[in-house]
Design goal:
The protein is α+β, with helices and mostly antiparallel strands. The protein has one domain: Glutamine Phosphoribosylpyrophosphate, subunit 1, domain 1, CATH 3.60.20. It starts with a strand and ends with a strand. The structure holds aspartic acid (ASP). Aspartic acid binds next to strand 8 and helix 6.
């Protein structure tokens, strides 16, 4: 199994470095316990959804109404399952996987997604259980100061895995941006934007969603990869993003087992394995 994960691309401050490194390392460790790529991506992302270091699952940013709205996608072999705007699902990536596996529809939002979870045995929770005191404080401060939040640093998570059978899977899970307009959906759950996987490459992206979705960042990596090495494809895709004023990062794996990653933000938290050894960076 080869697996690479990210824990967001932003100006992660020095005092948050350790938690990010621990979080991404733990995610790779969990993913490595699985046999197939799809399960590895799910488990790696579950770990980060449950870790309040990241803007996914528990501890996510609140929207302008002070609520949590989560988005997630998981993809393999040019197919995907995705959810957006869910408030009662602790692990949206697991719901996305259920949708992919059921293979009836690809993308379900809001109440419909929560109903689907309930009917299909994906655990629901009280939305309040996902809200952290830290985020409530942040939200109150944003409201009081009535300005754009600048001090946020925790971020979206993603994973890409290649298993022994040559299957590639990729996934992304997020709480979106702080104080977002209720109902706003970024790039993260959009196939080709925040995530993409076909039979030769898988990608997960993070960063400023409005720009990432305009350039279909993940799909751009896959298209560039047809003409160049993966590492180079990641770099060039980031140039495409930068050209429209966008910032972010990507992680990827190809079917030959090469890792690719690139970012144009001050920092990105990421980790990958070399056999049983886990390398983590920020
Ligand atoms: N791309 C995410 C969004 O715009 C945010 C992030 O990656 O941190 O919702």
């Amino acid at each position: 199994m080869k697996i690479i994960v990210h824990g967001g691309a932003w100006a992660i401050p020095d005092n948050a470095v350790e938690d990010h490194l621990k979080g991404v390392t733990q995610a790779v460790k969990k993913g490595l316990k699985e046999k197939n790529a799809l399960d590895a991506v799910e488990k790696a992302i579950n770990t980060m959804e449950n870790d309040p270091t990241f803007d996914a699952g528990y501890g996510s940013f609140l929207n302008a109404n002070g609520e949590i709205e989560l988005d997630a996608i998981i993809a393999e072999n040019s197919n995907f399952g995705a959810v957006a705007g869910v408030s009662k699902v602790r692990n949206p990536i697991s719901l996305a996987k259920k949708i992919l596996r059921d293979n009836e529809v690809n993308f379900i939002i809001c109440r419909g997604a929560e109903d689907y979870a309930e009917k299909n045995g994906v655990p629901l929770c009280d939305p309040k259980e996902l809200i952290m005191e830290r985020e409530l404080k942040r939200w109150r401060r944003i409201k009081k100061e009535n300005k754009k939040p600048e001090d946020f640093f925790h971020s979206t998570v993603g994973a890409v895995a290649l298993d022994e059978n040559g299957n590639i899977a990729a996934g992304t899970s997020t709480g979106g941006t702080p104080n977002k307009i209720p109902g706003r959906v970024g790039d993260s759950p959009l196939f080709g934007a925040g995530c993409y996987a076909n039979s030769s490459v898988g990608i997960s992206a993070t960063g400023y969603g409005e720009c990432i979705m305009r350039v279909l960042l993940s799909r751009t990596v896959a298209e560039l990869y047809k003409k160049m090495e993966l590492e180079q494809a990641c770099k060039e895709a980031l140039t495409v993003l930068k050209n429209i004023g966008g910032y972010g990062g990507v992680i990827s794996i190809d079917v030959k087992g090469n890792f690719g990653y690139s970012f144009n933000t001050p920092r990105m938290a990421y980790a990958f394995n070399e056999g049983n050894k886990i390398n983590s960076f920020i």
